[in-house]
Design a protein that fits this description.
There is one protein chain. The protein has 277 residues and is of the alpha/beta class. It folds into two domains: 124 residues, Periplasmic binding protein-like II (D-Maltodextrin-Binding Protein, domain 2, 3-Layer(aba) Sandwich), CATH 3.40.190; 107 residues, Periplasmic binding protein-like II (D-Maltodextrin-Binding Protein, domain 2), CATH 3.40.190.10. It has eleven helices and 13 strands. The protein is elongated, with a radius of gyration of 27 Å.
Amino acid sequence: MKLMRKNSFKRKAVAVVLGLSVVAGLFTGCGKEKSDKTIKVGAVPTPHAEVLNIIKDNLKEKGYNLEVVEYNDYVLPNKALEDGELDANYFQHQPYLDDFNKENGTHIVSVAAVHFEPFGIYAGKTKSLSDLKDGATVAVPNDTTNEARALLLLEAQGLIKLKEGAGITATVLDIEENPLNLEIKELEAAQVARAVSDVDIAAINGNYAIDAGYKVSDALAVESADSLAAETYANIVAVKEGSENSDKTKALVEAILSDEVRDYINQTYEGAVVPVF
């Protein structure tokens, strides 16, 4: 009888220990879930990271810590998002994202359109569009998306005419009329601003123009807010497919599509960045 009672006691003791372990595990799991309050967002420095930093306090009030990870290229932030290293990123427009997903087999989707960075034509050797001479040189970005924007802007100023329907896929091969025989120099987008002094005029991306110290007021011409480009090339907040309705995503989108962000953009960038919400 004593032996049976002793074994029974041991079994009960083991059961109690196992039960406590399960309960402790449950509490530990809940603790991890509740402490997962960091929203990690990848962005390029200007203006994206600057805009994100504005909403840190807003998100903190909602119980989230916003961590902004800065990148200096357009590839790594999408790869990091796909690999789960980021909760979201903010640096690109929809056409770029569509191409990236297609070429890399990634599954990234837009959850909010935030701002538009107008393309501008800036003076180099020639100080006004009306002073352009026959054979003048024009620097434009060489990637498909941005070259089309540059050519559409040149067309809007009456400097060239593109084939009907060329639109946002236009290249130099789509130039149908070129009355001034403009010489189009295709350069990597980041290099265009550096080549301004070597050409007559240059068509520069908004973010690269900002980095180079230009203001929209310096431009000879800019894309209008109701242009095809403005509608197409709004910069977006993107997440991995399946995360569109997560609490983190909802909190991030609500914070960035706020009056605070709209006012900051309008007051800070003097027309070089335009809110679209």
